[in-house]
Amino acid sequence: MEKLIITCALTGAEVTKTMNPAVPYTASEMAESAFQAYLAGASIIHLHARFDDGRPTQDAQRFKEIIEAIQQKCPQVIIQVSTGGAVGMSRDERLFPVTLNPEMATLDCGTLNFGGDDIFINTENDIKYFAKNLEDRHIFKELECFEKGHIDTILRLARKGFINPPFHFSFVLGVNGGMTGEERDFEFLRGSIPPDATFSVAGIGRYEFSLAELSVASGGHVRVGLEDNLYIEKGVLASCNAELVHKVVKMAIAHNRAIATPEEARRILRMEKKI
Fold this sequence. Notes:
By secondary structure, the chain is α/β, with parallel strands linked by helices. Helices cover 36% and strands 19% of the residues. The strands form four sheets. The protein has an eight-stranded parallel barrel with strand order 1-2-5-6-9-10-11-12, surrounded by seven helices.
């Protein structure tokens, strides 16, 4: 098996310090959290931006401040900016961080109910628009899929020439309104992507580590972090993002999989060099 790529999702747009005091908000908190996650074994940092009071933002200047702070502490790490933003943001607002020409960014692959009245909107035209912006800037895409229909949408758009390989899928499972994170769900999605595609899994809440182990054992990759899950075990808050990463590293050791460095991750994902 290839070495294991671990992505750390530092903070997201929804979780707060009242839920877990370790959730980072400030640029210095983000940088330190990213650095400790990198030391623990993460090669990709999945990045949302917050203002110092915790409010989510897609402001390019704020992203720039955080990215520069992270790069000062761990220049090797791959920074993957989120174009998901937060519910209610326009597509152009969500794309503000892309103007910084990051190495990697997410591309959300379909609309999803997020519980209550919240709807995370990603129309087909949105997906085409996001894909063109990322490809025009030579930004590597992570294809975030919350259910099987999202994979089908991407493969259909790829056949029509709107989205180009290489394809790296992220199965985000356990979100309200999306697929659950049972083994059957994971296997269904894994069997639905092209054989030459790579994939990672992000289990939300209680699904984080059970799905991580399935992915480790099957040759896939893993995303963990306080964005997705605030607990290191049932009822015990994680002390930091690095603690969540370290738990996956221990799984990898048990399955005889080595951990990929950022440069090895770039090779495995077939990330082209930025022009």
